[in-house]
Amino acid sequence: MIALRTKSIRKFLLVVVLLSLVSVFAAVPATQAGGYCAQWHTVQQGQNLFRISRLYGTTVAYLQWLNQIPDANRIYAGQQLCISQGAGSTAYVIQRGDTLFKIARRFGVNMWSLAQFNNIPNVNRIYAGQTIYIPDVTIQY
Is 132 helix (H, G, I), strand (E, B) or coil? Predict the structure, then answer.
């Protein structure tokens, strides 16, 4: 009886861990080729990739590739999708002691534009080793 309960608890915990990992990875917007995203879209209730692709004049296949979505029918409300990759940026790996303000000043860009460009909701939450993209000055928001 105890062995059966222990087995059931282990299976339950394994399922919980797996579901947690799936939700974490699904929540992190990714783009192909290490590029940055120039335009984001938050999926609304009732939207699918076909409707979103029509809205932005692109294809379902491109959105799938860009966001690494294996099944076009598996998106959800609230999900962040990259609509297009930008050009004219420089990759920068954040060093210990860096702040977004210091980085922006070093590259001659606006700190708030830099945060928006990299989808950073809190300008005080960056970390050493994180890669951000410095926008070309001509394409700042």
Answer: strand
